[in-house]
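Render this sequence as a predicted structure.
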Amino acid sequence: MDFSGKVAVITGGGGGIGRATALAFAAHAAKVVVVDSNAADGQTSADIVTERGGDARFVPADVTKSADVQRYVRETLAAFGRIDCFFNNAGIEGRVAPTQEYDEVVFDAVIAVNLKGVFLGMRHVLPVMLRQGSGTIVNTASVAGLFGGPGMAAYVASKHGVIGLTKVASSDVAWQGVRVNAICPGPVETRMMRSLEAQRSPNDPGSVHAMMSASAPDGRYALPEEIANTVLYLCSDLSGHVTGTHVVVDGGRAGSGGAAVRMRE
């Protein structure tokens, strides 16, 4: 897990998982480029890395725009000369509504960030890694990319798409020394989950948190740092023969089918 001399780019780096991953990379000696559409959050992440002795830059970008993606790639190369690790993480939750009532504008926005943004990131980072002959990409999917769920048509569709893109990209470049994988977090203690809890139960979001926690055998949400640790593993030499797959980080929820919860009850 030594990233000395390595450069890590993190989209959505101002959010909970993105910030935790930026800090984790920096703690293991990587240089970090934080990318986010929210300038305040992104700059804060970069500042925290710097305050803790790391080397970080912030680049504002809309991941749905090819010109912005090319710019964060260009600015990373200007600052550090290479890209070794790319955490393709930016995402939004959209709204919770039945499919037959889901707003088309919101649907398009979620697909643009969560799916097109992932594609554009790989489209413009992969050529850099291929020229280097090395590199690792981790795309943020979700357990929502493995299953369905009521009220989340856009999010679920986008995350299924991320897993598909991951499999295609990995098969395109594996023979050239570049690895591409995805992570599938379950609920994580972040702003996104607070939003979804409030949408599902405006008057009692805590009840949603309790229910979702109980649906995992370990009885809790993941911490952002636990997702970050998985990203670092997938970007490290420890996972050198791992590509084209997804790693589920959900406390056993997906594997148990709820059986562990019923046994506790």
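Summary. The two ends are 40 Å apart (CA to CA). Residues 258-265 have pLDDT under 50 and may be disordered.
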